[in-house]
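Form 7-S
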Amino acid sequence: MKINNFNWKIGGPAGFGVMSSGLMFAKACSRAGLFIHDYSEYPSLIRGGHNTYQVYVSEKQVHSQRKIVDLLVALNEQSIIEHLDELVKGSGVICDSAKVLFDKKSLKKKGIMLFDVPFNKIAKEVGGDEIMRNTVTLGATMALTKHDFKYLEKIINDQFSDKDKSIASQNIKAARAGFDFIKENYNIDSFDFFLQAQNNKPQMVVTANDTIALGALNAGCKFYAAYPMTPASSILHTLAARGPKHGMVVRHAEDEISVINMAQGASTAGVRSMVATSGGGFALMMEGFSLAGITETALVVVEVMRSGPATGLPTWTDQGDLKFVLGAGHGEFDRVIFAPGDQEEAFYLTELAFNITEIIQSPVIVLSDKYISESHLSIPFFDTKKIGIDRGKILTETEAKKLGDKYKRYQLTKDGISPRALPGQEGVRIFLNSDEHDEMGYSEESIQNRLDQVAKRAKKIKAAGKLLPPAKLYGDKTAKITLVGWGSVKGPILDAMQNQDLKKKVNYVHFPMVAPLPANTKNILAKSKKIVLIETNSQAQFADVLRAGTGIEVDHKILRFDGRPFYQSELVKEINKI
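Output:
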């Protein structure tokens, strides 16, 4: 029997409750002290199309999804046809054969077990309607995996806690009916998987979009503006619900141009501000982004990548915007770009981004992607005091009043960072100018002034110094192969390294920051015998970044750019070839 090592997948058309079922199952497993990672796929349609949600469950920490499916819940025939190749001998399929017509011999031939459950009939019998069929499947899943029903019951109550109590009650009845049907009609011991509760510490089940939003709240962000754009939209949803309770002003603006200009106005007024979008929306922000560069305005910009160019594959993942954000905006000004590799990093790097942007008085980008932004991971509760708040060189009321009309917003300093006054401070006059300007803020086109101001802006990042995160080495320092990655490839790589064939052969250097390159980049890669770059884009963009920044060349590249994330089994296969 396989205990606490289980990959579950549900598939069906949009509107069949695929996404809500997946998340409820993930949370039911997490509440039992198990670790989960989930991953969903859906087409860019207003309505319809094939949707899937898979949850990998383990008693050990996991970081990514799995390819082989142990139990497939098929809400339509297409789910079986499309995912038959992911099933192996001993796998199971739950479906309602009265509604899903297919060749059952194909399953039997592969040694796949079929569990025929009349979802629709059961849902109606308990007083509900067909919309509750997905809840019936959850009960059936709990029975087949010998999982304690109480965990699902608690999640259902939580899920519908803001609705009439009868809704939760009906859904629990539907789930219980599915649970009982399996136990009464099938020998559950014949299905070789068992989910057993563990005494691990409680975990959160969150996406990177969730943790970016929570990181902003904990960092004291008081203004957030956005225009919805997949896959960044849920940050707006989360902050619209939670932000006002924490004194945050949340604005759904008419477009991304308004978004970035609103946020800069708020930042200039003295509050921490953030915006979020995807590649197409960030393209519209370019003029405003450059404005923040020359006016030296603190601003956190979250760019959640999807497959481009243009609309591309708007509901699929990609790391193709790296060079875009590195060179974003017209003219030259340096910027810091964080690239969280998982949901936990997304929280802490977002918090850090608010400190860095105010310390260097220049925009900071948090570069995420669809994969981690919408995939849930079970992680420990955050240390909300780990980062703290550093607002940089903001003048006190007394300091500002003393300077009065002699205040220089763009004063030339040793570290390039000028003392920052806030509008409304008594006696001080502040001039912000999008033209090249002198120290006071007046337009100035002389050669020496231009040289001085460009040099000033170029020095600022160095002031962040030791606050910027280093590249991190995972695995044996003496390994023959060094895997290199940034952002969301971290999870699949860490899981691939657990393969017995690779454990002593490879190590991994993770880059949580892509601009500037971490200060330890050269040292950490200096002893690498063979460097293998892993990215989800077609041009190996980070290889160019490494080459330009350090002169280091990669020896091999493992790339994926079909909109799907890496599976750890695929990485093991490709690394073994090398």
